[in-house]
Amino acid sequence: MRLSIIVAIAANGAIGKDNGLIYRLPNDLKRFKTLTTGHTIIMGRRTFESLPKGALPNRRNIVLSRSEREFEGAERYGSLTEALSHCQEDDEVFIIGGASVYEEALPIADRLCLTFIHDTPSDADVFFPDIDLSEWLETACESHEHDERHAVDYSFVDYERKASPQD
Asked: Which CATH number covers residue 60?
């Protein structure tokens, strides 16, 4: 299984405000859809509840929640470990939020698919955990300047975890 984290991060590490995205970047949303379609996505309950139309189509949706409630169009597991144990060896699994799920997944992730937003929001209430970039190898970088559809400059940057010395 390949475990990837996908997230848009502002210059100060901000990723959300009031259970929503801080920035609306159409190209970032298009990239998210392209990368995750046909794969498994794992998210926390609040992230699922923030999706405007519920479960995302053409993806296996998994919600992490300790409650027994049902999430229409999604499977529910009580922990990330339990959810991952129900994924196939050849699956590509994307962690799509929120902050606590990112924090739990970061030490075991194989790949980071980041959108770095070259701006600092005036207010945010959710932040991505610190990334030790010495553990990662940059494999792709594509920079974009703001335009009529994107209010800020941003970059798509992908990283693969470096092999540890014992590998």
From this structure: 3.40.430.10
The set of residues, in sequence order, having a beta carbon less than 8 Å from that of 145 and lying 6+ positions away, is 153
Domain membership flag for residue 167: no
Work out the average pLDDT over 35-39: 98
Q: What are phi and psi of 72, to 5 degrees?
A: -55, 125
| pLDDT of 167 over the 60 cut | no
Q: How many domains does the chain fold into? A: 1
Q: What distance in Å separates the CA atoms of residue 57 and residue 163, rounded to the nearest whole number?
A: 34
Cα–Cα distance measured from residue 48 to residue 71, given in angstroms and rounded to the nearest whole number: 8
The torsion defined by the Cα of 12, 105, 77 and 31, in degrees rounded to 10, comes to: 60
Q: Is 50 helix (H, G, I), strand (E, B) or coil?
A: helix
> What confidence category does residue 166 fall into, taking pLDDT thresholds of 50, 70 and 90?
low
* CA–CA gap between residue 114 and residue 97 (Å, rounded): 13
The residue to which tokens 């190898």 are assigned: 137
Is the pLDDT reported for residue 32 higher than 80? yes
Q: What pLDDT does residue 60 have?
A: 98
Query: What tokens does 7 get?
Result: 């997230």
* CA 34 – CA 49 distance, rounded (Å): 22
